[in-house]
Design goal:
About 25% of the residues lie in helices and about 20% in strands. The chain has six helices and twelve strands. The strands form three sheets. It has a six-stranded parallel sheet with strand order 1-12-7-4-2-3, with helices on both faces. β10 and β11 form a beta hairpin.
Length: about 240
């Protein structure tokens, strides 16, 4: 087929498409009239971020993907982090700048690299793991999202080490993808993580760790209980002192 004949064929195909589609503005207007309520739907279930049903679904989905995931009380978060690292024999970990101070006590028993200045690729490959938090998480898909914000770091930190421990406040877990996207800045580099890294070749043989950590552990930190109202707080009784 010559260049001219290919060009003619291309024009013919495009002409048929234009004829079938008709007025593009009319098509766009018809699409605009389609109800889009499903974009923010939560499946008819509780939609509040961090609701018990939402957190339970998130943990269930992660377990399906082969991740170790559990819910811990806020007061027990540091000890849970320490326990997780000990269980993985993690002696040296990378922790991005901005990781919550209230959880850092759990890192006391390990050597921490702060990635400031950035840890080199060779050293990053040699550490035992990385500990981060996440910007948000999606219960319906068992996915958490890193956006490079405080405590999450640059993308290489969570792709090179073979073990990733992610600590997520329960209130950051939402029901659906649209709800999660509404919390994210589209200009940031977003990394979506659903279970340990794995892929399948053409023969459908599963291979783990090709594009990221083979071991993923997630701790969901339950919301801290609210403080009691001022008039319900205990008052020191001088007669008992």
């Amino acid at each position: 087929m010559t260049v001219s004949s290919r060009s003619a064929a291309r024009e013919e195909v495009l002409a048929r498409i234009r004829s079938a589609v008709g007025d593009s503005s009319a098509v766009e207007q018809s699409y605009a009239q389609v109800p889009r309520g499903y974009r923010d739907a939560g499946g008819g279930r509780p939609r509040e971020a961090g609701a018990p049903q939402t957190v339970a679904l998130f943990l269930e989905r992660l377990a399906d993907y082969g991740a170790s995931a559990r819910l811990v009380d806020a007061s027990a978060a540091p000890s849970a982090i320490a326990e997780a690292l000990t269980g993985r024999s993690a002696g040296t970990v990378v922790v991005p700048h901005g990781f919550p101070e209230r959880w850092r006590a759990g890192l006391a028993g390990v050597r921490v690299l702060d990635d400031d200045p950035p840890v080199g690729l060779g050293a990053l490959d040699a550490v035992d793991g990385v500990v981060t938090t996440a910007a948000t998480a999606v219960a319906a898909t068992g996915t958490f999202v890193l956006d490079g914000g405080p405590g999450q770091g640059r993308r290489a930190l969570t792709l090179v080490p073979d073990y990733h421990l992610c600590v997520i406040p329960a209130e950051r877990i939402v029901r659906s993808v649209p709800q999660a996207l509404a919390r994210l800045a589209p200009a940031r580099p977003l990394t979506f993580v659903s279970g340990p890294s794995a892929t399948s070749d053409i023969e459908m043989k599963r291979v783990e760790g090709v594009h990221g950590p083979r071991t993923l552990e997630v701790l969901v930190v339950a919301a801290e209980p609210p403080l009691p109202p001022e008039d319900h707080r205990p008052i020191d009784d001088p007669a008992e002192s």
